[in-house]
Amino acid sequence: MRRGQYPAAAGGRQNGPECEAGGAGSGGTPEDEVLGALPSTTRDGVPVVVKRSHRRRRTVSAAWRDGTAVISIPGHFTRTQEQLWVRRMLEKLQARPAGAGAPRSDEELLRRSLDLSRRFLGGQARPASIRWVSNQNGRWGSATPARGTIRISDKIGGMPAWVVDYVILHELAHLLEAGHGPRFWQLLAGYPQLERAKAFLEGAAYAMGRGLGDDPLDGDPDDGEPAEPGAGDPANRGPVPAR
User: Which segments carry the region annotation Disordered (predicted)?
Assistant: First the structure.
């Protein structure tokens, strides 16, 4: 898949790093302090979910989970305390990108791909191999269905976990459907962060200042793999490497 498609990814691991703060009960804020409405998304547009628990007394925690930023607070918190601690914990959480939980080895990558296949593809996609590569300059990932092999660009390693998961899923789906027709997208329809991840990667490609490549082939001349069927889809095009 070229960097224009996914059109140009939720670690990674589905659940990322967690932050925790103790003693929240004594670190409140005056009731008359105006903090404004709670943020509904992070700076990167990831949905924010606030969970109240009456079993929690003083501990506040934040974690990346299933493509969302989850903030857990004690059930007795006032609205003002909730606003204060949600903002504090979001700042801490955003300092630890969701992508920090991305699989670091090929073995971890394989385990993650099998888990994603089980959860979203009924376990039908089972790659013969999946590995990180550093020589894919025009795509986030690529697959060779005939061989059952998948290559994931190490350039996505620092992206949010839900984006990395989308890239892995996209390539897994190619093992079942080579092109980008209706059946291909139907395979991915169950992934809750599908459209968000595609938009994230589009923005990432644009931010790199390289535009969309003109080469319709999805095979990367650097990795010696043949072109993938359906590669002419604009979703598989990516930024042209800087010269």
Answer: 1-42, 211-243
